[in-house]
Design goal:
The structure is a single chain. This protein has five helices and five strands, in the order E-H-E-H-E-H-E-H-E-H. With about 130 residues, it is an alpha/beta fold. The protein has a five-stranded parallel β-sheet, sandwiched between helices. Helix 2 (about 40-50) runs parallel beside helix 3 (about 65-75). The N and C termini lie close together (about 5 Å).
Length: about 130
């Protein structure tokens, strides 16, 4: 059984302030092992070169957006087990459906609270048996 401190997160967002906010919230929840990537392309390289347990990913980003990253993760034998929590400023129904169909573990809309993030992360962790 791994503890919160052992769980390694990758926060992917092209907006550095948003990455900092998510990182801070995760830290408050006890998840202190958090790294950041500014887009999907950078994130994919990081995921392939180091072990992560959880991805929190924005949808709208340059170079490689959240859906493209999600598809790349799910298509990769070594990464497809990773839970991906999608984050977006737009609560479009088609995006929520697409995220679920593409294999996202969850979906939250900005701005969100610590309680919302905690609830989603815990629900996903329970599904994984962590």
């Amino acid at each position: 059984m791994s503890t919160a401190a052992d769980t390694k997160f990758l926060v992917v967002d092209d907006f550095s302030t948003m990455r900092r906010i998510v990182r801070g919230l995760l830290k408050e929840l006890g998840y202190t092992n958090v790294e950041e990537a500014e887009d999907g392309a950078v994130a994919l390289q990081m995921l392939k070169s180091a072990k992560f347990d959880f991805v929190v990913c924005d949808i709208n980003m340059p170079n490689m957006n959240g859906f493209e990253l999600l598809s790349a993760i799910k298509a990769d034998e070594g990464l497809k087990h990773l839970p991906v929590l999608m984050v977006t400023a737009e609560a479009r129904k088609e995006d929520i459906i697409r995220a679920a169909q593409d294999g996202a573990a969850g979906y939250i809309v900005k701005p969100f609270t610590k309680a919302t993030l905690e609830e989603k992360v815990q629900k996903i962790m329970q599904k994984l048996g962590k």
